[in-house]
Design a protein that fits this description.
This protein is of the alpha/beta class. Helix content is 31%, strand content 20%. Strand 1, helix 1 (13-21) and strand 2 (25-30) form a beta-alpha-beta unit. The longest helix is centred in the C-terminal third of the chain and has 25 residues, at 161-185.
Length: 233
């Protein structure tokens, strides 16, 4: 199959690398634009872009994705499927309808729990003992689409968001390839999410690092673990 991959941070890298090792062809990569970083505010390429460059894959880094120009560029790649992992933007209907098989997302939680931008961090903050990866068919909602495959991962008592994320990312890459294999074989039945069980994992802000000393010791420890490495407690 012809696959377009959309992703930006380190979390998305194992998913792209797993696709590059698979039987299918990654025909293009979409990532967020380079961002200024550090004291010198030098432009830094996102990790996914660096992997794509090394593999010689065409890259798009649009400032806006809701434009005719971007849709036209995406269409030119003629994707059978679009795979998404931590891209950072919600895809709208014209993009979702472009690939015949659909858009498959790799999400770092056991959906419908922890929908949103920071599922790894909030699972640790809330003292969960397990989390996992869910692959799903995307719709226009925030992680609300039908689920495809799901696999659990233990959260150890000394895990931080920083130590948990790489393990989840590796699992995500493996589960993405397995999902695509089963989609091609026609052996996968999407499962509707139970919206009544849904919880949210909103984007973290610097203010979330402020300690509330009225919390009990366990809750404080979980919060410190979940806020490491960013924004820090």
């Amino acid at each position: 199959m012809r696959i377009v991959f959309m992703g930006t941070p380190e979390f998305a890298v194992p998913s792209l690398e797993a696709l590059l090792r698979s039987d299918d062809q990654v025909v293009g990569v979409v990532s967020q634009p380079d961002r200024p970083k550090g004291r010198g505010q030098q432009l830094v390429a996102p990790p996914v872009k660096l992997v794509a460059e090394r593999a010689g894959i065409p890259i798009l880094q649009p400032l806006k994705i809701r434009t005719p120009e971007f849709l036209q560029a995406l269409s030119a790649w003629q994707p059978d499927l679009i795979a998404v992992a931590a891209y950072g933007r919600i895809l709208h209907t014209p993009i979702l309808r472009l690939p015949p098989i659909g858009c498959v997302n790799v999400h770092g939680s056991l959906l419908p729990k922890y929908r949103g931008a920071a599922p790894v961090q909030w699972a640790v903050i809330n003292g969960e003992t397990e989390t996992g990866i869910t692959t799903m068919l995307m719709d226009e909602g925030m992680d609300t689409g039908p689920m495809l495959l799901q696999e659990k991962l233990e959260i150890s008592p000394d895990d931080t968001a920083g130590t948990l994320a790489p393990r989840l990312a590796e699992l995500g890459g493996r589960l993405l390839v397995e999902t695509i294999t089963q989609l091609k074989a026609g052996t996968l039945t999407p499962t509707k999410q139970d919206d009544g069980q849904a919880t949210l994992a909103p984007l973290l802000k610097k203010e979330d690092g402020l300690i509330d000393w009225t919390m009990n010791a366990t809750a404080l420890a979980d919060r410190v673990r979940g806020l490491s490495p960013w924004p820090g407690a």
